[in-house]
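Q: Got a minute? One more chain.
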Amino acid sequence: MTRCARNRRVFFVEEPEYVPGVTPHLKVRAVGGVTIAVPQLPQNCADAIGAQRLLIDDIVRRADIQDFVLWYYTPMAVPFTRHLSPAAVVYDCMDELSAFKNAPTALRELDAELMQSASLVLTGGQSLYEARRHRHHNIHAVPSSVDVEHFAQARAIAVDPPDQAPIPHPRLGFFGVIDERMDLALLEGIADARPDWQLVLLGPVVKIDPASLPQRRNIHYLGGKTYDALPHYIAGWDVALLPFARNEATQFISPTKTPEYMAAGKPIVSTAIRDVVRPYGEQGLLRIADDAAGFVRACTAALSEDRDTQQCKADKFLQHTSWDHTWNHIHALLDDIARPRQLTPAADPKAAAV
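A: Always. Here it is, folded:
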C-alpha cells in the first residue's frame, strides 16, 4: 500500500476498536503516505455495521474522494461498504479465512459475494490460486514477497536484544502469530529430542489457550515484536523454523516469512506446506520435514551446511523477488480495471484513490 500511495491516495480502514463511552469517530494517522483510519466505536455498539458505514461515508466526503477503487483484504468489510459506487473492486484474497479457528459464520457467504462483485482477484499464493481460478475471470496469483534490504540487516547484526541474549546456542527461531496453525506437538517433540537446542518463538498467542503451549526449559516465548526489531532477533538464530500444522487453516497459506528468513541469511526447516515445498523446497532453498525426528535430522544438517553456498543460492532467487516488482505487476492489473472511470488527469489528487 505504501507503494500504491506513490501514485494514488490510499485510505486503509482497519478493524474497529471498541472503547467505553466513546462517540463513533475515526482515529486517523499517516504512515508511509498511507492514511490509516481506525473506527472508534462504543463497547456493546448496537449497530457496528451502520456506524462503520457512516464513518466510511464521512471520510469519502471529507477527503472529497470521487473516483476510487475498493480494495478488500477481508469479506467482512462488505456489509458496510456495499452501498458505495467504486470504479473497480479488488479482492486481495490472502488466505482461506473461513477455514480459520472461530471464523465468523457469515464469512463464506460474504466471500462468495465478493468473488462475484470483484473486478480483480489476487491470491496470496499458488495453491490458493489453483483452488479459486475457476471462480473468477480475472484472478492472479501474487506470492509472498520480501523487503530484502530490511531483513538482510540480520547478516551484519552482532548484538542480541536483551531478552534473547541470555538464551544459549544453538537457537531455532520462529516469528509470527502463534495460533491453530502452529504444530505444538512438533515443537514439543523437537524440544524433548534435543534438550540442548533452544526454541525461540516471537509473536502473539491468538485464538488458542496459552496454557496449551508446550512448556520446556528450552522453549522460549518472547512475545510480539515490531517489524523493525525482527532482524535483530533473527540475527541471533542458527536455524529458522516454519513449524506449521497440516490442517484446514494451513492448506492454502503462503508464509511471507519464508523469503524473509532467506533474506536474513538463515537456513530454514519447514513442514510440507504446499506453497513452501513449491518453489522453495523443490529448488533446494530449504529443508522439509513433517515430524519431530525428521525436523531434528533436518536441523542437524542445516546447522552444519555451507552457509556461503546456500546463501548464494538464496540471493539468486531473491533477485527476482521484491515488493517493488510485485507492486509493478499489480499496478498494471489495477490500471486495466480502473481506466474506464479515470477521466480526470492523473495529476489531479482527486482523480484516484484506493
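A: Residues 289 and 295 are 5 Å apart (CA to CA).
Q: Perfect, thanks.
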